Amino acid sequence: MTSNSFSSEFGTSSSHFEEDSVICIKQSSGLSGSVRVSGAKNSVLKIMAASLLAPGKYVINNVPHIADVRLMSNLLETMGASISHQEDEMRIDIPEEMTPVAPYELVERMRASIAVLGPLLARFGRAKVSVPGGDDFGHRPIDMHLKGLEELGVSFTNSHGYIEGQVEKLIGGKVLLSFPSVGATENLLMAAVLAEGKTLIENAAREPEIVDLVDFLNSMGAQVTGEGTSTIQVEGVDHLEPVEHTVIPDRIEAATYMSALGMTGGEILIEEARLDHMEMLVEKLNEMGIEINQVDSGVSVTVSKRLKSIDLATLPYPGVATDYKPFLVTLLSVADGVGIVTENIFAGRFRYVDELIRMGADIRAEGHHAVVRGVERLSGAPVRAPDIRAGAALVLAGLAAEGETLVGAASHIERGYQDLVGNLHSLGAEIGFVNPQKN
Ligand code: UD1
Asked: Pick from 111, 36, 46: which is nearest to 247 by CA?
C-alpha cells in the first residue's frame, strides 16, 4: 500500500487529534525527504512564563502549535494576559494588574505551570500556585524550587493543595542545588533577575533551554552570566522591558526523526536542527550506526544497515537526556545485540516498556535499569501512549513492526508535537489517524 492510499484511508491532518485519537502505523522502510523541527517546547513554556516579569507587548517567534503551549496560554490568560498565536508567531500582552494565581485545573494538566512561581513572586511579591502532583514519570517534588526561593527571602505556606508565597523584597543570595534541576534553575533565575543584589546559583542545570531563557531575560534587560555552565550569576535589576525573541529548535523532536530513520533506514534532512545542542546523543547514535552531519539547512541523517546495540545512561545536560531514552530503548529493541540502559533522572520512567514487550520486544526493566535484547522484528499490536515521548517512541516502534500498530491515547503525543504524524507521513512512512467514531 502506498502512503497516499493510506492517507486517504486515515487522514494525516493534526486536526484529527482529539482526546481519544488513535494513530495507525504500518511497517515502513527507506524514509526520505526533509522535515522541519518546531521551536523547543521546553524553552517556549518558560519564556512565556518569564513574560510575566514585565508589563507590555511581547513577540515570540518559532512557537509550536501544541497542547502544552495552549495550556500555558490559558494559564497566562486566567491571570489577565492577552495572547494570540498565528502561524509560528505568538503575541503576548501583559497588563499592569494581574491575578497571581495558577489554578488546580491547569497545573494538574501541565506540570511546567510551576514555572510561573518565580516570575509572579518577583513581579508582585506574592503567588498562589496549585501544588503539582506526580505523573507518568513517577514522584516529582518541587522542594528545590521552594528551598531556593526561600534563600531569596520568600516565605511559603501550603494549604488546600495550594502553595502560597510571599515576599516584601527579593534579596539575592547563594543557592546550591542538590541536583541540577531544570525547573528549579529556571524558577530561581526568573526570581533573581528582579531581586536586590547578586544571586549565585550553583550546580545549576546547563540545558540549551536554560541558555535560551537567559538570552530572553538578558534581552529584557536582566544581567545574567554563566548560563550553560553549572554556576550562574545574576545581578538583580529594578526594571525589565518586553522584547521580541525567537525560540531555539526542539532537540527532542529532532531526535525523534533521527530515531525514526534508525527504525526504517533511508536518508533524510532535518531542517533547523542544531547538533551543538545534542552532541552526546549524536555520539551514541553514531556508535549504533546512524550517520549524522550538520549541513547548511539543518542536519542530514543516513541509515543503511541494521543498528548495533550499545549501553547508555541518562544524565543532566550535556549527558544523554532522559527525554531521548524512550527512542533509544526502541532503537535497541531491534538492534543487533544487547544494550543496558540506566535511567539517572526519573526513577519510574520505564512504563512504555510493557507496551514494547507487547509488540515483541525483549526487555527486562527494573528500578533504574533496563536490559534490551534486540529482536529481528517487532510485531504490530494495539498499545497506549503513556506520555509525550514514550507515545512517540511507540509510533517509532510501529514503523519497524510487522502488520499494523495502533497507538491509543495519542492526545499525549500532541502535547509536544505539532504534527508528528504528518511529518513522518511526508517522509514516506505509512501512518495516519484512525477516526475513533468509525470504529
Ligand atoms: C524538565 C523537562 C523534562 C525533562 C527534565 C529533565 C520541561 C517542561 N520539562 O522537567 O522534559 O525530562 O527537565 O531533563 O522543561 N527534583 C527534585 N526536586 C525538585 C525538582 C526536581 O527532587 O524540586 C528531581 C526530579 O524529581 C527529577 C530530577 O530532579 O528526579 C530532575 O528534574 P528536573 O530537572 O527539575 O525536571 P523538570 O524541570 O521537571
From this structure: 46
Pick the CATH number of 41-246 from 3.40.50.720, 3.65.10.10, 3.90.1170.30, 3.20.20.100: 3.65.10.10
Would you state the cell numbers that stand for residue 207, as one nine-digit string? Answer: 540545558
d(CA 364, CA 342): 12
Residue from 75, 110, 129, 140 to probe ligand 1 pocket by mutation (most atoms less than 8 Å from CB): 140
Report H helices in 378-419.
388-399, 411-414
pLDDT the model gives residue 351 = 78
Ligand 1 close to Cβ of residue 322 (< 6 A): yes
Q: Is 336 exposed, middle or buried (0-12, 13-18, 19+ CB in 10 A)?
A: middle
Mean of pLDDT values over 126-137: 80
pTM for the whole structure: 0.95
| Distance of alpha carbon 74 from alpha carbon 112, whole angstroms | 13
Strand order in the sheet with 244-246: 82-86, 89-94, 56-61, 244-246
Q: Is residue 144 in contact with ligand 1, taking CB distance under 6 Å? A: yes
3-state SS, residue 276 = helix
H/E stretch holding 185 reads helix 182-192
Q: Give the distance (Å) from ligand 1 centre to CA of residue 181.
A: 5
State the Cα–Cα distance between residues 223 and 96, nearest whole angstrom: 23
Please report the DSSP string for 109-125 in residue order.
T-GGGGGGHHHHHHHHS
The DSSP letter of residue 131 is P
Shortest-distance atom of ligand 1 to CA 45: 8
| Residues linked to residue 36 through DSSP beta bridges, in sequence order | 271
For residues 204-226, give the mean pLDDT: 98
Q: Catalytic residue numbers? A: 135
197 lines ligand 1 (CB under 6 A): no
Residue 68 CA, closest ligand 1 atom number: 8
Q: What's the CATH superfamily of 3-38+249-438?
A: Enolpyruvate transferase domain (3.65.10.10)
At residue 50 the predicted structure's pLDDT band, cuts being 50, 70 and 90, is very high
Residue 339 half-sphere exposure toward CB, CA atoms < 13 A: 27
What are the residue boundaries of the structural domains of the chain, listed by start? 3-38+249-438, 41-246
Nearest-CA residue for ligand 1 atom 39 is: 183
Query: Is the CB of 27 inside a 6 Å radius of any atom of ligand 1?
Result: no
CATH topology match: 3-38+249-438 vs 41-246: yes
Whether 299 contacts 261, CB under 8 Å: no
Of 345, 368, 387, 389, the residue with max ligand 1 atoms within 8 A of its CB, to mutate for a pocket test, comes to 345
66 pocket-lining for ligand 1 (C-beta < 6 Å): no
